[in-house]
Structure formats: C-alpha cells, structure tokens
Design brief:
HAUS augmin-like complex subunit 4 isoform X3; mainly alpha; 0% strand; HAUS4; 8 helices; HAUS4_met
C-alpha cells in the first residue's frame, strides 16, 4: 500500500498538519487509482473487441474452406475486414504535420479513406456487428465454462448463462486460492531451505565430532586391538596345526592296522639284520682290501693274472660242457 489505511490515520491525528497532508495524499492516490482502473478497463474492452473481431474473420475464412457461405455473410465479413484494415493503416500513418518526414509509402489518410466500404454497407455491418460479437463472446464463455467445469457441457444455454454469470467470481476466488497456495508454498520452500541449511550444518558438526572421537579413542585402543588380533590368529593357527595333525594321525590309523604294523615290524627287523650282515661283510672286505693295498702293484698284477686265468678256466669249462653235450 502506498498510504496507510484510515485506522492508521486516526492514530497519528495528534498533529493536524501531518494528518491533513496524509488525507490529501490519500484522496489523490485514490483518484489516480480510479483513473488507472478506468483506462485499464477501457483498454481491455477495446483489446477484447479487437481480438473477437479478428477471431470472427478467422472463423469465417476457415468456414469458407469447408462449406459455402451466404452472400450476406460474405458481404458482412468483407466489409468488416476492409473497415478494420483501413482503420489500422490510418492509425499507423498517424497525424501529419509540417516539417516532419514524408508519410509511409507516400500515402495520406485521404488516400486510405477512399478505400472505405460504402456508407450503406458500413451502416448495415455495424448494425449486425453487436449480435455477431455477442454470439462470439457467448461461445467463448461457454467454451471457458466447459473447460473449467466439463460437467456443464450437457447443460442448457440458460443454465450455462447463469453459470457464466458467476464464473468470474469463481475464477477470482480460485485465483486467490492459487495465489495463497503459492505464497504458502513459497513460505514452506524458504522454511525448508532454512531447515536444510540448519540440518546440514548440524550433520557436518556431528561428522566432525565423530571423526575426532574416532581419532582419539581408536588410536588409544589400536595397540590392544592388534595384540588381541595377534593372539587370536596365533591360537587359530595352533588349532589349525593340531587339526591337521589329527587328520594325519586319523589317516595313518585307518591305513595301518595292528596286523600291518606287525608285518612291517618283522620286515623292518629282517631288513635291519640284512643291513647288519652287509655292513659286516663290507667291513671284512674293507679289511681285506686294505691288506691287499699294502702289498702294492705286484699284488695287483697277480690279481689281474688270476682273473685272466679264472676267466680262461671258465671258458674252457663251458666249452667242455658243450662238447660233452654234443657227444651224448
């Protein structure tokens, strides 16, 4: 509000000069707003009329593409269009004054007025125009009503007219409700943003506190935790080794029965006895070999000669045996 309401004026009337100036300003402001509303209403009325006439012409030309129109309709719409175009062009040319630039395309208003339709056609068109405009406006109002309330499509024209009469108030109320809802939504959005910012700051502080607690307390207990983990792993490893040993013993006990063990023991005793005998023979042979090594190279020559004689004797014996077999 540009000026306070009357109830506020009453509160400050203790100073006559200020009160008089405020009342005078309030009157001027009210008068100015009335003039503004009046000019706005006049402009809206002319703008609506202009658009309705243009829609009439558009609907006429669309209608001519599908159906044949009567001569009266054709005459009416052509006269209306001609009058509208000439009036618009005359308005664009504007008033001419001496010393100004030449008019657009060298045209004068007098040239355009020659294109006006005949006066009798204009009078006839103007007499019919309110009815056409009324029909167009009624059609638009009914269309708006059916769009706003689809159930009204099946109503009669009288009932539709009655509903259209109250449609403006309904739309104003709905507009006010929408504005109130937008205002509440805006307030809720601002409140939500404030709460989001507050919650974000609280969460950040909580995270910082948790991080500090983790850094302080976990570092103190980390060594103890590592020691407990090491003991646990050591015990677990020992248990695993014992379990492996138990599995090994179980496999051995299942593989080697008492009879098999006894047989293995006998075999081992015999093998050990044979090994002892072989060791004794090897010891004797080693002693004999040592004795022979003391004799020197002459003994080696005698050994070679003995070996050769022994081999020759065996060959002759074999030949004798073969000869005896042949004689038989």
């Amino acid at each position: 509000m540009l000026f306070p309401p009357d109830k506020n004026l009453k509160k400050i009337r203790w100073h006559p000069g200020i009160s008089a100036h405020l009342e005078k300003g309030w009157k001027y402001c009210s008068k100015a707003w009335k003039e503004v509303r009046l000019h706005k209403t006049t402009w809206l009325r002319s703008e609506i009329l202009q658009r309705v006439i243009q829609e009439l012409l558009v609907d006429y030309y669309v209608k001519t593409q599908d159906t044949n129109v009567t001569s009266e309709d054709k005459k009416f719409h052509e006269t209306l269009e001609q009058r509208l175009l000439v009036t618009e062009l005359a308005r664009l040319l504007g008033p001419t004054q001496d010393g100004e630039a030449p008019p657009l395309l060298g045209l004068e208003k007098a040239d355009l007025l020659q294109l006006m339709p005949p006066s009798e056609d204009f009078v006839w068109m103007r007499a019919r125009l309110p009815q056409e405009v009324e029909e167009q406006l009624k059609k638009k109002c009914f269309t708006l009503l059916c769009y706003h309330n689809p159930s009204s499509d099946s109503d009669s024209e009288t009932l539709k007219a009655a509903k259209v009469w109250n449609l403006a108030e309904v739309l104003v109320d709905e507009k006010q409700q929408c504005q109130d809802a937008k205002s509440r939504q805006k307030e809720q959005t601002v409140l939500l943003e404030k709460k989001s910012a507050t919650y974000s700051q609280v969460l950040l502080r909580c995270l910082a506190l948790l991080q500090r607690l983790l850094q302080e307390h976990r570092l103190k207990t980390q060594s103890e935790l590592d020691r407990i983990n090491a003991q646990y792993l050591e015990i677990k490893c020992s248990a695993m080794i014992l379990k492996l040993r138990m599995e090994e013993l179980k496999i051995l006990s299942d593989t080697y029965t008492a009879e098999k063990v006894e047989v293995h023991r006998l075999i081992r005793d015999r093998l050990e006895g044979a090994i002892r005998l072989q060791e004794q023979d090897m010891e004797k042979s080693q002693q004999v070999l040592n004795t022979y090594e003391v004799l020197g190279e002459e003994f080696e020559m005698l050994v070679k000669e003995y070996t050769q004689l022994k081999q020759a004797t065996e060959n002759k014996r074999w030949a004798l045996q073969e000869f005896s077999k042949a004689c038989r």
